[in-house]
């Protein structure tokens, strides 16, 4: 069956320095997950700034109960597919569970995601010992995006998918960890499921772009799982997400609406955040 390709508008490629410039200029950064070439083409056509090949593919594509079984091979495979659907949107790929167990393993995984997969940046969860891993990857000129707050690879330690940083000591630790990730050389940071006020504070105090998912409207940008924001994920939709396909007649229209709402500050609303 023949399907006409989605045409993408012409624009300059989004770059890592360009994302920093967007933060400095107060322009919101838009980010969505993608796991194949078709969805990637829709993100490209809607002018999404960043496409994330998340290890969330373990849950939304593979049907697993967590992200933990996802392998480096899985990530490379899906990153290759997404890269084929992009031309100007920046491509970020997750380092999956335990690929960061030591510096050599993390370097190997990052090199594969960039060299074979075509990613421009890799994303890694955590701080502490992870800062050494971040520094080692950055020293090889591979840009890194950190990920703090609710880090899904630590789901068993957290006892479930729970909001992080609600108590003052936990909030202070998240601020310190965010600054440590930045000092280690990260070029961007994702904050997941933390109080909106804390997301705003960290975004103010860091010079690198801070992308929120359930971290409030005052972050420098937003990211959602594309299946969630299209209402495709079975079960209850996360509080921090919204069904952008509802009331619209196409996936392209839904993604365009998400981009417009993030850039205008209409999304996320108060109802999508945490206290």
From TrEMBL:
- For whether the record's keyword set contains Metal-binding, the answer is yes
Q: What class of enzyme is it?
A: transferase
Which cofactors are reported in the record for this sequence?
A: Mg(2+)
The biological pathway it contributes to is:
Cofactor biosynthesis; (R)-pantothenate biosynthesis; (R)-pantoate from 3-methyl-2-oxobutanoate: step 1/2
Q: Does the keyword Transferase apply?
A: yes
* Record's cofactor remark: Binds 1 Mg(2+) ion per subunit.
* PANTHER family registered for this protein in UniProt: 3-METHYL-2-OXOBUTANOATE HYDROXYMETHYLTRANSFERASE (PTHR20881:SF0)
> Which family is annotated?
Belongs to the PanB family.
* Protein name, UniProt field: 3-methyl-2-oxobutanoate hydroxymethyltransferase
From which organism does this entry originate? Luteibacter rhizovicinus
């Amino acid at each position: 069956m023949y399907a006409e390709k989605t045409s993408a508008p012409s624009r300059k490629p989004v770059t890592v320095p360009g994302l920093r410039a967007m933060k400095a200029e107060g322009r919101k950064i838009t980010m969505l997950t993608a796991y194949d070439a078709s969805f990637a083409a829709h993100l490209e056509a809607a002018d999404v700034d960043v496409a994330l090949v998340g290890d969330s593919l373990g849950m939304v594509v593979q049907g697993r109960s967590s992200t933990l079984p996802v392998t480096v091979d899985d990530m490379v495979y899906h990153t290759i597919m997404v890269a084929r659907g992009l031309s100007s949107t920046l491509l970020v790929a997750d380092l999956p569970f335990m690929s960061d167990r030591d510096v050599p393993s993390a370097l190997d995984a990052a090199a594969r995601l960039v060299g074979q997969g075509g990613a421009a940046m890799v994303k890694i969860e955590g701080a502490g010992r992870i800062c050494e891993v971040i520094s080692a990857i950055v020293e090889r000129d591979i840009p890194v995006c950190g990920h703090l707050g609710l880090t899904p690879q630590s789901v068993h330690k957290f006892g479930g998918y729970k909001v992080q940083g609600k108590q003052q000591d936990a909030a202070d630790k998240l601020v310190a960890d965010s600054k440590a990730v930045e000092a280690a050389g990260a070029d961007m940071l994702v904050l997941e499921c933390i109080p909106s006020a804390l997301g705003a504070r960290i975004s103010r105090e860091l010079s690198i772009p801070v992308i929120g998912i359930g971290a409030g409207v005052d972050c420098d940008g937003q990211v959602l799982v594309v299946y969630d924001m299209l209402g495709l994920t079975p079960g209850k939709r996360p509080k921090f997400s919204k069904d952008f396909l509802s009331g619209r007649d196409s996936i392209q229209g839904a993604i365009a609406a998400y981009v417009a709402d993030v850039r205008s500050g209409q999304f996320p609303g108060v109802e999508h955040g945490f206290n």
